[in-house]
Predict the 3D structure of the following.
Amino acid sequence: MRSVLLDSRGQVVIKELPEPTLRGGDLLVDMRACGVCGSDLEKIRGGYTAAPPVLGHEAVGVVREVGKGVEAIQEGDRVFPHHHVPCYACAYCRAGSETMCSDYRRRNLEPGGFSETFRVPAWNVEKGGVFPLPPPLSFEEGTFIEPLACCIRALDRFRVPEGGTMLVSGAGPMGLLTLQLLPFYGAGSVLVSEVSPYRSRHAKRLGARTVDPRGGELGKVVREESEGRGVDLAVVASSSPQALLQALDNTRDGGTVGLLGIPEVGASLPEMSRLLTRELSLISSNAATERETRRAVEMLAEGAIEVASLVTHRVGLSEITKGLALAEKAEALKVVVTP
Ligand SMILES: [Zn+2]
Ligand SMILES: [Zn+2]
């Protein structure tokens, strides 16, 4: 079977591998679709080191084989298997920092989501990390379960103020999912800051007022929308250090900046005293648990979040290099890889 891996030099290669060995409690899943995530691109660049570089985690497919002892899931089931699952028992998990659990990143799809077939470890299966895809959801829509769950966890952590003014920095897939989630949290007006006209058009279509942050307009528009104060909550769904600085500048005194995009490695805050003098809260959110994943599956199945139009490119496994290059482009949103 073919699988996309990072070799020892950090190059993306398509390899012919033996199928993973199924052990008790595991699942073998035939991949039907897997989204390209910004974190995959970060892993390829070598900057994102929170986990060993396994590529592909927004994967859905059909269960080909179930290991001994698996009862809740059967052969032929359409599933989304969460790649990382916490223990739900340690001090981190009990404190609500489940994605910081030492078990969380230890388990992963083997050899990764960009594979014709992959193994889901027994741990992930036992802890409830495998979700059946409800009938109305296509495989392609199912690839949004994991990114949507990450956005849900982020908005839970950022505590969206009822009726508050919002800024979403970045209208890539995560920004556009966040934009669609905000009404469910009771958010008031939402402004989207985005440099790409292509991505801005998508944000506009989803009902947001958009502004290009490069022309000096952003501050003016934010003040218009917020009676001169700045937004109550700015969600940074971009890896650009500029986006984070602009979010800090355009959030009201006492407001919150939520960090959802992975900042470029090496980016730092030039002036930290203003965090305190302006009583700004900076909250980050990393990945998601089964709690948010369940809600993501439900919301997608109900059609509450529109994802079909966010898929701009589809590539086969053999065209992965092209797919990864497309995912870097400002004229793309979600790139979905199929076998
Ligand atoms: Zn992802
Ligand atoms: Zn734990």
